[in-house]
Protein: Alpha-amylase
Organism: Streptomyces actuosus
Amino acid sequence: MRRDRPPARGWTAGALAGGLLALAAVTGPPAAPRTGPAAATATNTATIYYSTKTRAWSATYLHYAPDGGSWTTVPGTRMQPACTDWVKLTVDLGQATGLQATFNNGAGTWDNNGGRNYALGTGDITVADGVVAHSDPCADPGSGTGKTATVYYSTQSLGWTTVNLHYQPAGGTWTTVPGLGMESACTGWWKRTVDLGSATSLKAAFNNGNGTWDNNNGADYTVPSGTSTVKNNTVTANAADPCAQQQPDTQAPTAPTGVTASATGTSVVVSWQPATDDRGVTGYQVTRTGGTKGTTVTDVTSTVLSDTGLEPDTAYAYTVRAVDAAGNLSAASSTARVTTGSAPDKPATGTPLGTDPRKDPIYFVLTARFNDGDSSNNRGGSQHVKSGNAANDDPMFRGDFKGLIDKLDYIKGLGFSAVWITPVVLNRSDYDYHGYHGYDFYKVDPRLESAGASYQDLIDAAHAKGMKIYQDVVYNHSSRWGAKGLFTPTVYGVRDSQWSWYYDARNEGFEYDGLTVEPQSGKSYYNGDLWSTAEPTGNTCLNWGKPTGGKSAEGYTLYNCQWPSPTSGMFPKAYYHQCWIGNWEGEDARSCWLHEDLADFNTESAPVQNYLIGAYDKYIDMGVDGFRVDTAVHIPRVTWNRRFLPAIHERVAQRFGAGAAENFFVFGEVAAFVNDKWNRGSPNHSSQFYTWKERREYSADDATAALEQYEYEQQQGTGNQPTSTNAFLDGNAYHTPDHSRFSGMNIIDMRMHMNFGDAQNAFGNGKDSDDSVNDATYNVVYVDSHDYGPNKSSTRYSGGTDAWAENMSLMWTFRGIPTLYYGSEIEFQKGARIDCGPTCPLATTGRAYYGDHLKGSLTVSDFSKVDAASGEIATTLAQPLVKHLQRLNQIRRAIPALQMGQYSTDGISGGMAFKRRYTGGGTDSFALVTVSGAATYTGIPNGTYRDAVTGDVRTVTGGTLSVAAPGKGNLRVYVLNGPGRIGADGPYLK
């Protein structure tokens, strides 16, 4: 395809204009008692409106290619004035249903859009500072002589960058979805005046043009004629103009400072300090010059830009301008210059599989402990000998991506189609193999990568096998050594006989990467760049270098400022919190340090938010399929809902489309180690709480909003939290779930996890919590993990093979997504202490190396289907729980009700017995399940039921079916009009 324009490049970190604040994961119009909005009829034209408010261009050109067609000749077709701050062009698409597009000024300056073409559809489309929406911003609402309604809509708590008014005059018809574009009236307010004709009021709904709606608790707004405001789900009639007291914003932000640019290969990371503005900065424009492709302008909302896919060995220059809500542009920053390096061997690839995550059972691995594919990247750390790992030839960093790629077929042979891996970012501590001590969030830890086995290679290899990669991510904290690119503290390093083994001499030309050995010290865990015996300029730590009066465990003298801590004054408030947690169920659990090593990010600070959003955009762009969120409970829900979750959703949507964003699976660890429904009566510390949006507006300042939200929800208590029927059948009928109040974060089912000492107990506790979860069919369910076993046990589960089989039978048929910690398929390390710290051998723990059980070869033809195996891996695959797992996965994969169905226990007798149904997309799957015990089902649909385990056929004519007890670990799955027996009998399923 001919493309005479700067080539599209991978999306850049932070290039998501407007994405930081938008509401998450509400697709489609709100459930409401209005006449359904008319669906926009696809035409073969697209009318594209482009905002010129922040572009100082004398002309604007649209350079485009209809899908499947050819590009226009550069610079494209000149766009025509439409209305104030907008130009437009109508494009004939022929038979195409969309187009690729980019914009330029006709003189060599391009809207870079983060290095990618804009993917546009049909109808009316707006493009404003990188944000694509759907409406006619210049539409005339009518010129009749009847009544009018002037509507002001507040986005203070939403952060939408575009707003549409979808409305129906009383007795009239609805506008075409998404409605008319509203105009920015003043900070936080949007305005539209519409002609009502003879009507005296209108029904209204508001949306951001990209599928996110103000649901208003499922009801339309009723707005009278005259001037009204709509704020916090409240309509105020005959209202004063909320913008009347605000003077027009004519003051531009300050110019960004501290602009730096660094190159790695053909990628450049640009960062800068936040600008200031009297009413708030809303974004930045980054202008790049250099190379042969012309000048580009990229809109971002963070203070970090990753510019990828550049020309090798080429000089580039970057300037940054700040933008406020009124469209005022700051002066340009000083110029940052950089020269790229050599081109990579191959370009980055990767697209998420984008299917419903409930279809994919999850296998969880500690990458560094799973399988070693490349011994050259193994590293032991400072405790290698002392811990006993050296004696076992078992370095803590042992497994790697190559080893995981080599054994993906093993995981697929078990029947798993999703792999959850521990964090991949560069770590830094004495015990960092697990990945939770992040240091450089923009760099993959080289101890995990090998030639031909990069992180990108792992993602691509998994996708080629139809398997997803879920990346463990940490937003709450870095390691004690800070975060490279954000803030790294300087500590007092004592170069004397006591501490010379620990503090390394500075090597100015060396940079820590965890893998490379520093020649002076002979260490890969070099820390000479972190310490300075001389007091550094600008030091804020008191009593620098003076003895504390204490001694270390070895009897060595301890000095002030020797190690970072929250109370030392070494961590600025702008980046880190400055306190230790005192109450794990108090507010300080969200705003203080967890542990000595875990420096707690100030997640309510814009620089921190931008740093993290920019970093995780990088991994989204690589094509990962979802994020497991570590320590989610230690960040206020309002911060998740305002910042991080919308940023994830918007990035995936703009990079891969709305469907991929809908199925990008985010599941959070909200660790509530109690057996009751609410964590010690605190909504703010309970898992289900994080699945919901906020219910009211809070202060625009995130730190203040966090306190306001905490107090409000604590006062509301557990009895006044939202409830949901999304997981439950209505009798025997499946109903469309209502996700309009969904936050965007699903959860690990901590209550079932804590109660899995007994399957029946886990089942009862799980059911009891499901009405307080937005949609419990998305819960991630496991027995034990790298942290705990049931009942907060510090050891791996050791309940016995029969109990394991029963637990698995429940997890694979009950609502939620079954998840297995590596090795549990052979009861690996059962009863072993999961973690005993850096000074004991890992081989004795629940995090032991697993690769010895995977030696040999195997051939896999499909999920759960191993055609041949030899060596130790054949012995592993012959174990009874492996056979059990394989068949459970076969059965679950064949029956949609077991994957995505709602459930009910109404009319059912029996211990672990339930019915499930899923209806959608031409599928109607209805299943009756009993685990271990007998059951009787009454009031069920008549028809022919076939058991997926035995093939038994039952014809129901009176609405009742009875099942004898199949035995511990066994189960029965009677499916209405089902396929019959699935798979072969095994040690438990028979």
